[in-house]
Amino acid sequence: MADMTPVKTKMPEQEPDVRNRNFLEVALGYTPELAAREANRCLRCKNPRCVEGCPVNVPIPEFIGKVQEGDMEGAYRALSRANALPAVCGRVCPQENQCEGRCVRGIKGESVGIGRLERFVADWALEHGVQDAQTAPSNGHKVAVIGSGPAGLTCAGELAKKGYAVTVFEAFHVAGGVLSYGIPEFRLPKSIVQKEVAKLEKMGVEIRLNMVIGKVLSIDELFEIGYEAVFIGSGAGLPQFMKIPGESLVGVFSANEYLTRINLMKAYEPDSATPIFESRRVAVLGGGNVAMDAARCAKRMGAEVHIVYRRGEAELPARAEEVHHAKEEGIQFDLLCNPVLIEGDERGRVKSMKCVRMELGEPDASGRRRPVPIEGSEFEMEVDTVIVAIGTSPNPLIRSTTPGLDANSRGCITTAPDGATSREGVFAGGDASTGAATVILAMGAGKTAAKSIDEYLMGK
Amino acid sequence: MAEKYQIVRKKVLTPDISLISVHAPLIAKKARAGQFIILRATDDGERIPLTVSSTQGDLVTVVYQKVGDSTMTLDEIPEGGCLSAFVGPLGEPTPIEGVKRAAVVGGGLGCAIALPVAKALHDAGAEVDLIGGFRTKDIVILEDEMRSACDDLYICTDDGSYGYNGFTTGKLEELLAAGESYDRVYAIGPLVMMKFVCKLTEKYNIPTIVSMNPIMIDGTGMCGCCRVTVDGQVKFACVDGPDFDGHKIDFDETIARAATYKEFEQRRRAEHRCRLEGMDNG
User: Least buried of A37, A68, A311, B135, by fewest C-beta within 10 Å?
Assistant: First the structure.
């Protein structure tokens, strides 16, 4: 008999006033007892809607059922069959819009804490050194994967399982893509990311760091040196700016820069060689997950932090949990507020930002109500730092060096539903083809492309 | 066989400036004049962008100046040692097509980058005047290499201890006033030098290319840290540059941006010196 408690079992967390001064993980994870209690809330529906809500179709009732039985290894096997990076997804997926959003328990109360259970099972497996499923014997085919973010790692893992010799090319000196440079340590510890990468290497995936494809080797050259198919999972790394006056003042950063300094280059460590701007009052522009991450990092670096977003609370694109955590940590939300210009001092450093109040008008193309400025409502915010987190677009390095590779007007590589691009043998997925989206959608695309690459090479 | 990112050759050019040739066959094959690499000396080091000075076989040569903590750490790696990371070639090559007569102006460490530009132009058949500026005679670098990469080499020293007495802009102005004409001027060196070369060439209406060296992290267009305003448009030096039309650059903004982490860098440099002295005493 299922536990009919209407609310999720709470996951222990660091207290807000403690955690907003350190970079340790905020959510501490379930104990086995808490996991067992939460697992018992799952009704194990015959027609599980949660699975449909998952971009990689994790067999959720099956893995939670194993947790109910106390078979953690079995739970991990079920989970990892569908999801190459469960310890990551359990932490960063927007579950409320996916699996948990479809859970029947959510109708009369809170859904089952699927993400929390996923994290518990994945962490248990990492701690206990559970070996992943055996890979098939080598089939002698070579595939190149560009980018070691969620799309690339998933694609590489799926192909390695099938016996392909996979090489992942990463531009940075660390693998993981956005998982390493973007998502902060307190939300996704980098040791977890590296353990997931190490699992792939154990499966025979070769990871070549410091390789900027499009520069050191082109896609055509990858084919020349023996790769038979290429997957492009190079993400959406190009930061967008507001295009308002003052954006090149000292103290204005893209969220990518700010987060990369902190996460990848460890600028929060006291003896780090990488500098970070010493901010007192920070405005973070945008309302997505990246804005929340940047704001929470700036808070931890000791600043007073404001999220400045042009729409309202209901329109914030960030995961509900990130907004909740940010508020708990003392981040201030200046909603319905849009920056107009940034002002600098005589040294070219940010001293204030002029904003205008907004109100919501008619719905726009995205279905959200369009924010319109309220005339005469301009006001000044005194800040020394502005972090722009209004989105990113795909990096042009690869498409500009690959003749015949089609992209749309936003620079996203055009793909068929199976991941095929306009170039034979070249597949793409994740943010590189969709524009900035989520880790799990990128993983879904990596998985789909792996299947297509397998069909393509086996059919040759 | 050299190891990955091994420093195969190291040459001290002045007490502050050294040259290293790094084993990086793929980059050596691809790099063109004006492009840069990013290296990390150690596993916890900063990413340092350096413009490629030359390539030969499997080796990529860069020249660095010990200006801060990270370059001091780099300098501690001996010949035969390995770097933690070496990535490139990044940025676009310097445009040299169609140029028949050029003046290439290098300032200090910038001469190490002016050198391949002059050589590329010279090899492509252009007539090249190379003007290299230094503070004083003792810190003149790469003189022989520069001489063989141009038609006429003019060394300038700020204190008059060698060659022309004065700044590179003074020498360039002298040449222009004497009737020399160039289809293009290339300026590579400190921001202030490039700014004044551009002011001068604007007067003479000579198209001028400058090589920007802003703060950057990834070098692939990802962080936007290296943005420069060119003709009112924001450009990323790492992917759109590092070379730009010098008459359209907002130099004052670029100079301000270059000082973003000045306090941090001063503190780190002082700490590094303390560590060194501490070791000496121990």
Answer: B135
